Amino acid sequence: MSRVDLSIRQAILLNDVALVRRLLKHHPEHLHNPDFADKSNTSLHLAAQHGLTEIAELLVSLGHDSTREVTDWIYSNQGDNLGISVNTDGRTPLHLAAASSQSPVVELLCKHFPQTVNRPDYQGQTPLHLASCSQGAAIVPSYADQNSRPTTRTGEDNNTIDILIAYGADVNARDDQGNTCLHNATAWGNLKAVRALMQAGADPLRKNKAGWTPEYYSITVQAEVYYRNLVAEWEKRKAEEAARANDRRARAAAAAGGGGAVRLVPQEPESDDDDESAASRSRASSARSQQTTSSHSDAGLGITVGNVDTWK
């Protein structure tokens, strides 16, 4: 007598949608079907890890996982299994899909379960942390037969990174060691990921808890040189953006000052008794103005200096 749980896993690895559908129709209690010998990975974990998009779509349509937030997920045949599937590493199906760069499944899971995009595992690593590493081909479990054809990733595939960023992944997220996604990318030598992350706003000078920036984890001299060049470009771009921001502020200040126009302050009418004193004040003011105009201009900013002596 065959075991239903193994039959379902084999059908998933065979990417046989019809067979999976038929098995789950007769055994709906095995929808999640966690493999306790493999970190309690569920059916959706398995499909995500191997890039089986149609299987993943079927499982989601049948109610595998939901948008309800949970802090822990423990499977029970009799219990309430709603929520997000989390294995013994604290990783969701999105984590496994990202780690293997299965971009179609990553996009599917981001769309259905956006709350998992920045969810950390038990080591504080988000799906983007895992996508930033160069991973090898997914390991096929021992119960899979020789006809299994799981999809594998291609080297330095940035589609997964682009999708996660598009769905709001934090490029500067830190894990429990303070490592950012750039730390992972440089440590694994994924230079395309380094460029993609920096273009998305990742800080290349951010240090981890050990006090090291991503540059110090470059695995080769060539990678280190490449990283330094990217940092130089990043610093140049930041300087240019700061200069443009300053220019915009200066223009805004000039516009707020009236564009160089002179602001006339209305004076209160003076009585006839004050005519002589007013004329005297006017002559004194005119004399001071003639003495200082050549050396103390307001550059058309509409600034009035009350006492010129303070500028000397």
From TrEMBL:
The keyword Phosphoprotein does not apply. PROSITE patterns: ANK_REP_REGION (PS50297), ANK_REPEAT (PS50088). Residues 279-295 have a biased composition (Low complexity). Keywords: ANK repeat, Repeat. InterPro entries: Ankyrin_rpt, Ankyrin_rpt-contain_sf. ANK repeats lie at residues 39-65, 89-109, 123-176, 177-209. One of its GO terms (cellular component) is cytoplasm. Residues 250-312 are annotated as: Disordered. The keyword 4Fe-4S does not apply. Pfam families: Ank, Ank_2, Ank_4. PANTHER family: ANKYRIN REPEAT AND PROTEIN KINASE DOMAIN-CONTAINING PROTEIN (PTHR24198), ANKYRIN-3 (PTHR24198:SF185). This is Ankyrin. It comes from Knufia peltigerae.
